[in-house]
């Protein structure tokens, strides 16, 4: 089998607000083959820039566009092509947009391999440990603790067994922070898991004080308490924190995650449509298994990202948790026709071949950015 064409499709809703919402602007990647099989992938990053990473023509060695690297290759050699894409872009790649773009190609290649072999992707990644995955939803803290409690109650009413609150008014003042997390705990009830996303709020010493303050409220993890590049801060905090520390949604490649694991981070959060794809995610969860840590997908864009994350989690022994995005954007809710639903707080893993999803051509036509 040979790759005949690579089609990066930029989708964007008419009004993209400057809010932390990955469901408004995405790059879908279709990889076509001479066997009539098409693979589906997604990139959750700067779509214009990542599209250029595909479209750029061949150049001098190790600065080629991704499409020129892939066309003519055997799509079933998924990991070999990951190495080739990584190496042949390394003058402008390695970290940043090029590796984000590689994620979309890598997801599409796993989809092709599954379709060609008549297997769901989770089987290719290491087998099924579960048929559905426990979901947690994320939301910004409310403007007031009362608002936060109301949001928590709504999540509980949806049947979710875990929720994450973050950003908004959180991080400035210990009393305000405690009041919000207490309100979230009260709204969720004691039996549900509550996670807190600090959004790079502090130096590690302040983060440690907050971890101690919030610990009696039963925090599942404290996410990104320090800056993404403050690796020393992570190391100091992880040694001392009474609650698990999470991070890594901005990290890419298994080497970045190896570093976070070595620094002591308890829960690492690769985004499959950003970190380098399923090939990287599988390597990361092999490392977390070996080190007694957890990998939980960061997932906040479309049903393609969600489905890839579900297949990954289905294949990981201690992988029973996925972020489930409840934003109303049509790119999240409608792009994947058979979007995996929330059922009693869990999400079924599609059992068709490959990723097991079908895209809605109408949605693609409506939101496609034509250059
Ligand atoms: Mg986060």
Oligomer: single chain
Q: Shape from CA axes?
A: globular
CATH superfamily of the largest domain: Enolase-like C-terminal domain
Gap between N and C termini, in Å?
30 Å
Please write the CATH class name of the largest domain: Alpha Beta
**Amount of beta strand:** 15-25%
What is the C-alpha radius of gyration, as a whole number of Å?
Answer: 20 Å
Structure description:
This protein is of the alpha/beta class. It has 2 domains: 3-119 and 362-367, Enolase-like, N-terminal domain (Enolase-like, domain 1), CATH 3.30.390.10; 124-356, TIM Barrel (Alpha-Beta Barrel). It is built from 14 helices and 12 strands. Strands 4, 5, 6, 7, 8, 9, 10, 11 and 12 form a 9-stranded mixed β-sheet that branches. α6 links the parallel β4 (132-140) and β5. The mean pLDDT is 97. The structure holds magnesium ion. Magnesium ion binds at residues 166, 197, 223-224, 249.
Concise synopsis of the structure shown:
This protein is 40% helix and 16% strand.
Task: Pick out its properties.
9-stranded mixed sheet, alpha/beta, binds magnesium ion, 14 helices, 2 domains, 371 residues, 3-stranded antiparallel sheet, TIM Barrel, 40% helix
Describe the secondary-structure layout.
Layout: E1 3-12, E2 25-33, E3 38-43, H1 47-55, H2 66-70, H3 78-88, H4 97-117, H5 121-125, E4 132-140, H6 145-157, E5 162-166, H7 174-188, E6 193-197, H8 204-214, E7 219-223, H9 231-240, E8 245-247, H10 253-263, E9 267-268, H11 278-291, E10 294-295, H12 303-314, E11 322-323, H13 330-333, E12 346-348, H14 361-367
Parallel strand pairs: 4-5, 4-11, 5-6, 6-7, 7-8, 8-9, 9-10
Antiparallel strand pairs: 1-2, 2-3, 4-12
Helix pairs in contact: 1-4, 3-4, 6-7, 8-9, 9-10, 10-11
Bound molecules: magnesium ion.
Magnesium ion binds next to loops.
């Amino acid at each position: 089998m040979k790759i005949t064409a690579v089609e990066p499709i930029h989708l964007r809703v008419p009004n993209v607000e400057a809010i932390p919402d990955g469901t408004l602007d995405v790059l879908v990647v279709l990889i076509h083959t001479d066997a009539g099989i098409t693979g589906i992938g997604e990139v959750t990053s700067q779509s214009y820039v990542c599209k250029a990473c595909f479209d750029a023509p061949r150049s001098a060695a190790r600065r080629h566009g991704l499409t020129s690297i892939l066309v003519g290759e055997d799509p079933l050699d998924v990991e070999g092509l990951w190495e080739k894409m990584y190496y042949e872009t390394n003058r402008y790649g390695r970290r940043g947009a090029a590796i984000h773009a590689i994620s979309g190609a890598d997801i599409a290649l796993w989809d092709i391999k599954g379709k060609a072999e008549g297997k769901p992707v989770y089987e290719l990644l290491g087998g099924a440990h579960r048929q559905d995955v426990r979901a947690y939803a994320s939301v910004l803290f409310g403007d007031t603790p009362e608002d936060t409690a109301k949001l928590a109650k709504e999540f509980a009413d949806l049947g979710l067994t875990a929720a994450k609150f973050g950003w908004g008014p959180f991080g400035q003042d210990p009393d305000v922070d405690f009041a919000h997390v207490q309100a979230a705990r009260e709204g969720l009830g004691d039996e549900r898991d509550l996670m807190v996303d600090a959004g790079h709020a502090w130096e590690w010493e302040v983060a440690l004080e907050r971890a101690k303050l919030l610990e009696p409220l039963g925090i599942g993890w404290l996410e990104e308490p320090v800056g993404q590049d403050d690796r020393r801060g992570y190391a100091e905090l992880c040694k001392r924190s009474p609650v698990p520390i999470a991070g890594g949604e901005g990290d890419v490649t298994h080497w970045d995650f190896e570093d976070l694991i070595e620094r002591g981070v308890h829960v690492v959060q690769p985004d499959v449509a950003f970190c380098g794809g399923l090939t990287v995610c599988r390597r990361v969860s092999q490392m977390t298994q070996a080190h007694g840590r957890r990998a939980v997908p960061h997932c906040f864009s479309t049903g393609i990202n969600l489905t890839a994350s579900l297949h990954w989690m289905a294949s990981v022994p201690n992988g029973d948790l996925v972020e489930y995005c409840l934003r109303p954007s049509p790119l999240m809710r409608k792009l994947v026709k058979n979007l995996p639903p929330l059922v009693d707080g869990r999400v079924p893993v599609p059992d068709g071949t490959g990723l097991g999803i079908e895209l809605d051509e109408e949605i693609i036509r409506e939101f496609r950015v034509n250059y």
